[in-house]
Design a protein that fits this description.
Blueprint: E1 9-13, E2 16-20, H1 27-30, E3 36-43, H2 47-57, H3 61-68, E4 75-78, E5 83-93, E6 98-108, E7 112-117, H4 124-133, H5 142-176, H6 183-203, H7 205-216, H8 218-221, H9 226-289, H10 301-324
Parallel strand pairs: 3-7
Antiparallel strand pairs: 1-2, 1-3, 4-5, 5-6, 6-7
Helix pairs in contact: 4-5, 5-6, 5-9, 6-9, 7-9, 9-10
GO molecular function: cobalt ion binding; cobalt ion transmembrane transporter activity; magnesium ion binding; magnesium ion transmembrane transporter activity
Subcellular location: Cell membrane
Organism: Acrocarpospora corrugata
Length: about 325
């Protein structure tokens, strides 16, 4: 098998790590060894490289085509000789509010796991560290390797949903502080809701993926590694339910922002209307006395003071009434 760049490889035999970092060209030499389990990783492989791997491992053409087609949904497809897994790792930037998704796939055979990444943002070293920290489970072969992949993916989901929860708590604090949201905050709320919608599309299908492994894979269901997959499933459920609740919460915050803006506008309109009513009284009185006709007290000082007193008293009474009703 030709490879343009160094790839990560590992060989386990009877639950023990025998070799790692060997050329992918040597993988075929170990596939038929008794008790051997092989893992190797490819980053953005070419169609020719995948064709070579497909021929070597007997992969289904639909599985290979899924790797070559970007933006596949998270899924687990079952074939006669292997399974195909497609998942997404997630990273969230709390400063910018940007959600970063990295697509990764895996071909799972009886004695081999092949991971295919779209970029280096899928941290292979973190994956290796997880395997090394639980090397006692290596006797379970491919199930052990698959558990490490799923555990890493789900943990990135959990980290993202925790970071988003912190962001939403900040929005809630400012909301309950009765601060009118500015345009920047409104935009952040909208972007956060978009990120949650996108994130939900990659988190929710993970429930079916892990559940399918239980129902249709006797190697996992009937072995002592089952509790570890159950732990992953519990994390998947928590992340999915948490995502749903946060999406609803962001929607409620958005509605609260709109309600606060509407209330603010109503308050402004009440104040403007109240002041207009107060100004209208002296305007009406002075307008009446400004007509070019005789009126009571015309050309008399007492007439001037009488009209001034009337509109002053009327304005004070209106002001007091509006203040009493909290319109001013």
């Amino acid at each position: 098998m030709a490879q343009t760049a160094p790839a990560n490889t590992r060989l386990y035999r009877n639950g023990k790590l025998i070799s790692e970092g060997f050329p992918i060209a040597d993988v075929s030499d170990h596939l038929d060894e008794e008790g051997a389990v092989i893992w190797f990783d490819l980053c953005s492989p070419t169609e020719e490289e995948l064709a070579t791997i497909s021929e070597e491992l007997g992969l289904h053409e639909l599985a290979v085509r899924s790797v070559l087609t970007p933006n596949q949904r998270p899924k687990l497809d079952m074939f006669d000789s292997h399974m195909f897994l497609n998942v997404y790792t997630a990273h969230f930037d709390g400063g910018t509010g940007v959600l970063d998704l990295t697509e990764a796939s895996a071909f799972i055979t009886a004695n081999a796991l092949v991971t295919v990444r779209t970029s280096d943002r899928f941290d292979v070293q973190e994956l290796i560290n997880r395997w090394d920290s639980s090397e006692g489970l290596a006797e379970h072969g491919v199930a052990f390797l698959l558990h490490g992949v799923l555990d890493y993916v789900v943990d990135t989901h959990f980290e993202v949903v925790q970071a988003m929860d912190e962001q939403i708590e900040g929005l809630e604090d400012r909301l309950f502080g009765e601060q009118i949201p500015d345009r920047v905050e409104e935009r952040r709320t909208f972007e956060l809701r978009q990120s949650l919608v996108t994130f939900r599309r990659v988190v929710t299908p993970m429930r079916d993926i892990v559940n399918t492994l239980f129902r249709r894979n006797d190697v996992i269901r009937d072995s002592s590694i089952t509790p570890y997959f159950q732990d992953v499933y519990d994390h998947v459920l928590r992340a999915a339910e948490w995502t749903d609740s946060l999406r609803d919460l962001v929607g409620n915050i958005r509605e609260a922002h709109m309600t606060m803006q509407s209330n603010r506008m109503n308050l402004i309109m009440k104040r403007v209307t109240s002041w207009a009513a107060i100004i209208a009284v002296p305007t009406a009185i002075t307008g009446f006395y400004g007509q070019n006709v005789p009126y009571p007290g015309s050309e008399q000082m007492w007439g001037f003071w009488a009209s001034t007193g009337v509109w002053s008293i009327a304005a004070v009474v209106l002001y007091w009434q509006f203040r009493k009703r909290d319109w001013l």
